[in-house]
């Protein structure tokens, strides 16, 4: 369905939702700069000031860690993963990474090494790389996956946890500031695109180049510029010598477990040896 797929992508692009491969370099650089500036000036951004403690996710991540594992958390914010390791007396070397220096002191105190730089400038070799609710904020998902691949040992695992906008009608919050009819049209086009994608092995990595955070007061995930698709990630993994395993979040209760299973991307991507 190449012609139908291209027609859908063209209609989406007119609303600012563009497949990453189709974004021209100048447009991408300008957008990347806008988002970098946004995070630099918004020091009260929730993820920058509130400690993040996800013990149930951490238990699942721990299951993939070999003895004396070297672990990197990407987009760590105010992560409490270092505290989790200490509380559980887990033998591991924990490094953290983030693009802002707002949490420099926090991460320097809670991890053995803090990389205050883009992922492309991180060096090392890791058994496990993970992120929690970061993937949807990545402006260049393909580069993100390629850089994680560069840092990951053969046989290592890259764990991605975040929203899954493949679910019909589940619209990325950065698009919710649009008019009702624009939102409805976007939902229909996204559903149509995912249907065509089932007949191909292409990863689109859709980017919203006009997220609500750039024009409106912040609300949760108004800056989630990446329209995350599990199909995109799985297709990339298959093309790059990875296997993909679904995680099974235990949930605080049945409702929480069902919610996470349907609406959350929770996968472990293992690099083949």
What is the fold's blueprint, element by element?
Layout: H1 2-13, E1 17-19, H2 25-41, H3 46-49, H4 55-62, E2 69-74, H5 81-87, E3 92-98, H6 104-110, E4 113-116, E5 126-132, H7 141-151, E6 152-163, H8 180-197, E7 206-208, H9 230-239, E8 242-246, H10 254-263, E9 264-271
Parallel strand pairs: 2-3, 2-5, 3-4, 5-6
Antiparallel strand pairs: 1-7, 6-9, 8-9
Helix pairs in contact: 1-8
For the structure shown, list the relevant keywords:
two-stranded antiparallel ribbon; 273 residues; 10 helices; 20% strand
Summarize the structure in words.
This protein is of the alpha/beta class. The protein has ten helices and nine strands. The protein has helices at 2-13, 25-41, 46-49, 55-62, 81-87, 104-110, 141-151, 180-197, 230-239, 254-263; strands at 17-19, 69-74, 92-98, 113-116, 126-132, 152-163, 206-208, 242-246, 264-271. The strands form two sheets. The chain has a seven-stranded mixed beta sheet with strand order 4-3-2-5-6-9-8, sandwiched between helices. Helix 6 (104-110) links the parallel strand 3 and strand 4 (113-116). Helix 1 (2-13) packs antiparallel against helix 8 (180-197). It is globular. The mean pLDDT is 92.
Largest sheet: 7 strands, mixed
**Considering DSSP H and I runs of 4 or more, what fraction of the residues is helical?**
25-40%
Sheet-strand content, in percent, reads 15-25%
Shape: globular
Rounded mean pLDDT is 92
Poorly predicted runs: none
What is the count of helical runs? 10
Distance between the termini: 35 Å
User: Looking across the biggest beta sheet, what order are the strands in?
Assistant: 4-3-2-5-6-9-8
């Amino acid at each position: 369905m190449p012609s139908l797929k291209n027609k859908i992508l063209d209609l989406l692009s007119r609303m600012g939702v563009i497949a990453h491969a189709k974004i021209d370099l100048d447009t991408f650089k300008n957008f990347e700069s806008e988002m970098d500036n946004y995070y630099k000036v918004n020091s009260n951004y929730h993820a920058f000031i509130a400690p993040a403690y996800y013990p149930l996710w951490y238990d699942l991540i721990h299951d993939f860690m070999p003895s004396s594992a070297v672990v990197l958390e990407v987009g760590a914010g105010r992560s409490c993963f270092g505290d989790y390791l200490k509380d559980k007396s887990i033998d591991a070397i924990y490094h953290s990474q983030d693009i802002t220096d707002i949490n420099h002191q926090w991460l320097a105190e809670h991890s053995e090494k803090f990389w205050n730089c883009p992922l492309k400038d991180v060096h090392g070799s890791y058994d496990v790389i993970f992120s929690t609710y970061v993937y949807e904020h990545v402006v260049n998902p393909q580069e993100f996956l390629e850089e994680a691949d560069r840092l990951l040992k053969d046989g290592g695992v890259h764990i991605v946890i975040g929203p899954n906008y493949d679910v019909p009608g589940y619209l990325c919050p950065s698009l919710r500031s649009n008019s009702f009819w624009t939102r409805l049209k976007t939902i229909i086009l996204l559903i149509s695109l995912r249907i065509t994608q089932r007949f191909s092995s292409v990863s689109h990595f859709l980017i919203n180049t006009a997220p609500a955070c750039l024009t409106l007061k912040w609300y949760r995930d108004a800056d989630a510029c990446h329209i995350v698709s599990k199909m995109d990630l799985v297709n990339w993994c298959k093309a790059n010598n990875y296997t993909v395993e679904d995680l099974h979040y235990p949930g605080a209760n049945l409702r929480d477990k069902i919610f996470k299973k349907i609406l959350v991307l929770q996968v472990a991507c293992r690099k083949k040896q």
